[in-house]
Amino acid sequence: MIIGLPKEIKADEYRVAMLPSGVEELTHAGHTVLVERCAGAGSGISDEDYLACGATMVEDHEDVFTAAELVVKVKEPLKSEWPLLRPGQTLFTYFHFAADQELTRNVLESGITAVAYETLQGRNRDLPLLTPMSEVAGRMSIQQGAKFLERPQEGRGILLGGVPGVEPAHIAILGGGVVGKNAAKIAAGFQADVVLLDVNTDRLRYLDDIMPPNVNTLYSDRHNIREQLKKADLIIGGVLIPGARAPRLVTAEDLKFMKPGAVVIDVCIDQGGCFETSRPTTHSDPTYIVDGIVHYCVTNMPGAVGRTSTYALCNVTFPYVMKMVKEGLHAACQQDPGLAAAVNLMNGQVTNQAVAETFGLKYVPYTGSPIR
User: Fold this and answer.
1) CB-based contacts of 41: which residues, under 8 Å, 6+ apart?
2) If residue 178 lies in a helix (H) or strand (E), which one and from where to where?
């Protein structure tokens, strides 16, 4: 099989979808791996590293897509890449279709098989390919929140941990999943006053058991969210419905409850965001202000720490690459229903129910048999 590894072209995206060690395993198994020149530069991986492991170096971005049967990426294909997609090709990457109807329509029309990292399920119905990037984003959310709370960044001028005689920042975290748990751990280390909100009471009991004393848990409902908006200096949005659009938990009208200069970090912006006022931003231009509230809505947060993120991501994605290459996609999906759950689109059909429902499209279940 010919596997393609293109350089990511999304703004400020420094990750790469495969390590040299992965290239070595594939080439030793008799496959060809096309690597676009400088694909790993943002993660500190040189072309020479890939060449030493058997990669075939390609100069042109388009040539990777033209030749490859399986393309492995990090982020969704951008508009300039849509014409490069073709029927019979498989693309393995983060898509987040439910947040982008235009992307969904164009990838659907291309006829490719879209295998999405974010909906692949583990044995316990967890999301193993989303988890490491959610860990990175959750930890980064506090790092970024601390920066944008500074007055030169138009924040409130708050130090997260305070100092003796001055109270610390109050941080509210919407969602007690992987993002929320990791954000709370880092915020607790800063000695901030932290509240974690979730609708799953079993999860709240678990978090209450493992978190330090400066992290409290609270059931997530409209009343409690509003009360936290009044108190919070920093709010982290970290809710997730796999494959579907993120629920809107905070309306534009709700911003009136917040303190001027408070900061919103919407980690779930990839799935549309949980604040009505959220819109995608980039690392080069990460924030904007609505009604005095600083919004940080970068769609590829982990991309800023490319080396850490690349290694964390490839550790979990590469075994599935090998499985698809060795067995073939359909056979691999028949053996592993969790991999089948990652197939969102195939041959012009929507095979993910949440995506289909989001846009009112026909849903065609996929269980490992080819769809025509």
Assistant:
1) none
2) helix 178-189
Query: Out of 96, 170, 295, 330, which one is annotated catalytic?
Result: 96
CA nearest neighbour of 55 among 15, 83, 18, 80: 18
Q: Are strands 113-116 and 293-296 parallel, antiparallel or unpaired?
A: unpaired
Check whether 299 has a pLDDT greater than 80: yes
pLDDT tens digits, one per residue of 47-82: 999 999 999 999 999 999 999 999 999 999 999 999
Strand partners, 298: 281
Residue 372 has pLDDT above 80, yes or no: no
- Residue 96 annotated in active site: yes
Q: What is the CA radius of gyration of the chain?
A: 21
The count of C-alpha atoms lying within 13 angstroms of the C-alpha of 95, restricted to the half-sphere facing its C-beta, is: 32
Domains defined along the chain, listed by start: 2-120+305-359 (3.40.50.720), 138-299 (3.40.50.720)
Active site residue 170: no
- The torsion region of residue 360 among left (phi > 0), alpha (psi -120 to 50) and beta comes to left
Q: How many CA atoms lie within 13 A of 121 on its CB side?
A: 14
CB-neighbour burial class of residue 366 (10 A; exposed 0-12, middle 13-18, buried 19+): buried
Q: What's the pTM value of the predicted model, to 2 decimals?
A: 0.92
Q: Which of these is catalytic: 100, 233, 266, 270?
A: 270
The candidate with the shortest Cα–Cα distance to 325, out of 68, 54, 127, is: 68
